[in-house]
Amino acid sequence: RTQLVAVYDSETGGVRGLVVGTLLGALRTAAINAVAIKHLARPDSRTLAVLGSGFQARRHLQAALAVRPFEEVWVYSPTREHAESFASELSASPDVPARITAVPSPADAVRTADVIITATTSPTPVFEPVWLRPGTHVNTIGPKFQDVHELSPEVARRSAVKSRHFARAVAS
Questions:
Q1: Taking the model in full, what pTM does it have?
Q2: Is the C-alpha dihedral spanning 38, 40, 43, 45 positive or negative?
Q3: Which string of DSSP letters, residue by residue, matches 41-90?
Q4: Phi and psi dihedrals of 86, rounded to 5?
Q5: What is the pLDDT along the chain (172 residues), one digit of tens a residue?
Q6: Can you say whether residue 52 is alpha, beta or left, with left for phi > 0 and alpha for psi between -120 and 50 degrees?
Q7: Which of 62, 139, 143, 170 sits in a 20 to 30 Å window from 123, CA-based?
């Protein structure tokens, strides 16, 4: 999807330019979620689960690694080859100090993660809330509507810090 971002002059409020493209939107969203990880995840967080292996997932992993020294990253995708390719490609980057491993199920990624990023287009929850350990930080970037969402509404109900947007979207 192509996105349009308006850039405004901070002094006059006038439009300085328009940026068209998909990368800027992904970087903006990843940066916002990286700030959430930096300030809301437990300081001792060392394990990261990424559910999804597409365009957004790449940017979010890179941003998360920029704000936290994750040692282990587990990647799950319904298509095993996609998860393995994602793990292999990002592991080869000199900017990625963590060990990245493709795992066969979302449970394998979620059950021991300190931080979870869900970066999918799934219309149904991608993991079971009972797999979450207390204190796990979860960032979701996928759909959030009454009948379509990648997280179970139970995750929002059990959360200490809630996204008002997510909570409203999945309210029963």
A1: 0.83
A2: negative
A3: S-TT--EEEEE--SHHHHHHHHHHHHHS--SEEEEE-SSHHHHHHHHHHH
A4: -60, -50
A5: 677 888 899 999 999 998 887 787 788 889 999 999 999 999 999 999 999 999 999 999 999 999 999 999 999 999 999 999 999 998 888 777 779 999 999 999 999 999 999 999 898 899 999 999 999 999 988 766 777 888 888 887 777 765 655 556 555 5
A6: left
A7: 62
